UniProtKB/TrEMBL annotation:
InterPro entries: LysR_HTH_N, LysR_subst-bd, WH-like_DNA-bd_sf, WH_DNA-bd_sf. Transmembrane segments: none annotated. Keywords: DNA-binding, Transcription, Transcription regulation. It comes from Faecalibacterium intestinale. Belongs to the LysR transcriptional regulatory family. PANTHER family: HTH-TYPE TRANSCRIPTIONAL REGULATOR, HTH-TYPE TRANSCRIPTIONAL REGULATOR GLTR. Residues 1-58 form the HTH lysR-type domain. The keyword Transcription regulation applies. PROSITE patterns: HTH_LYSR. SUPFAM superfamilies: Periplasmic binding protein-like II (SSF53850), Winged helix' DNA-binding domain (SSF46785). This is LysR family transcriptional regulator.
Amino acid sequence: MELRTVNTFLHIAELHSFSRTARQLGYSQSAVSSQIAQLEAELGTPLFDRVGKTVRLTDAGQTFLGYARTLLETAQQAQAALQPAQQVRGSLRIALADSVCSTFLPGLLQRYHARCPQVELVLHTASTDEMLQLLSTNQVDLVYTLDQPLLQPALVLAADVPEPVCFIAPPQHPLAQENTIPLDLLPRQEFLLTERGMSYRDALDQCMAAHGLAIHPYLELGSAALLCQMVEQGMGLSFLPEYIVRSALAEGRLARLNVPDCTVMMHRQLFYHRDKWVTPQMNVFIELVQQQ
């Protein structure tokens, strides 16, 4: 059983396509078909059902999938042990939330590039739904979300960090002097908020609606970091993840408002698809996020 044939099997299992696997690996389609036929002959059982243009794992193929991953991972570990100086190469495609990108990514990417200078990084900012769609179609390798806890059978959770979201105001704002803020005061204030569809914006809208209230911002913007700067300049109130505003709060450039009737906790989570072969470049990124 050749490792390149096992690698081809894993790509087909991930892409659900012989032709796409051939293009990605640089083989002819006939070579891919020949490798799988040889593997099925060695194992004595069909690994894929081919109905029209649809390719799906058989029960035997699903069973072999775990062993195939272990085979390649073991081979990679052996190669790394024998050649410790060898650089991780290839590409890494990550979809992530804007707020995660602006806050955590600069330092994370600096450490990643120091570890893997030969890896090409391709980044996409998107909503959670868009990220999961990219992951399910193998257009990205990892997604780094800020949302309610996501529990889906197709996802493998690699990191999970709770992140509070808070109301912020300029320090000179009248509400900044109050110990607690009644929820019904908020709709009367000028707000700058992230766009609808962003996880914590939706959580805020749901919390307000549960009390028969609504906040109508005079400005909506996708960039959480820019919203933070605008609140610092006295342009209104906002509702942002605490990690975005932590330094500004500590330095007195912003004030945190205590609104007991609206407490929102998001989760910063890193995922990959359960059918995805975890590459060395993915492993390094996962390790760095877990350390972070």
